[in-house]
Write a structure and sequence with these properties.
By secondary structure, the protein is an alpha/beta fold. It contains seven helices and seven strands; from the N terminus they run ββαβαβααβαβαβα.
């Protein structure tokens, strides 16, 4: 797993985060995680991340690498590089750490991190999440949080391409990507 952790000061090795994770566990701190592409950061993402952070003491965001975004979303995505997306997420007050991962799904990262709580948006069902088994095996819980209607990265990209500002309204709910 070729992952690095992005902080406001820049990248650092994943092993440092995992060592910190052990300390946080010993201190009884609740570690919350989420993951996604976060290709075009919008208010729906920010609200979701704030809600996720409110579930515990620290929020760690797993961020799909550029290559994994292309595999998920197609050759025209991502719009911003993984470094840009990581830096924007790390700059948010509600985000404590950002980990870039290469896989399409965050399962390997989540198995190593073992978060206490893993959050996803309201357009998901906990039992259907690809990461559900990994979270439960690590002793964590899954929480599905409400989404902000009218925000979708795909809808916003389409609105920009077509020049129709309202194209994102009424589209599918904002997924973290």
């Amino acid at each position: 797993m070729a992952a690095f952790v992005w902080t406001p000061a820049g990248p650092r090795p994943l092993d440092e985060l995992l060592q910190g994770r052990q300390t946080w566990r010993e201190e009884g701190r609740v570690v919350v995680s989420t993951n996604g592409c976060f290709d075009l950061l919008h208010p729906g993402h920010v609200r979701f991340l704030q809600q996720a952070r409110s579930q515990g003491d620290l929020l760690i965001v797993g961020l799909n690498s550029d290559d994994s975004v292309r595999r998920l979303k197609g050759p025209d995505r991502p719009l911003r590089s993984q470094e840009d997306r990581a830096a924007m997420l790390a700059a948010l007050r509600c985000v404590d750490e950002v980990v870039v991962f290469e896989e399409v799904r965050a399962n390997e990262l989540l198995a190593r991190l073992r978060p206490d709580i893993h959050c996803k948006g309201g357009d998901y069902i906990a039992e259907d999440l690809p990461e559900a088994e990994v979270i439960r095996r690590g002793g964590g819980q899954i929480r599905i949080l409400p989404f902000s209607p009218g925000y979708s990265t795909t809808g916003l990209v389409e609105a920009i391409r077509t020049g129709q500002p309202g194209a994102s309204e009424g589209t599918s709910p904002a997924r973290a990507g």
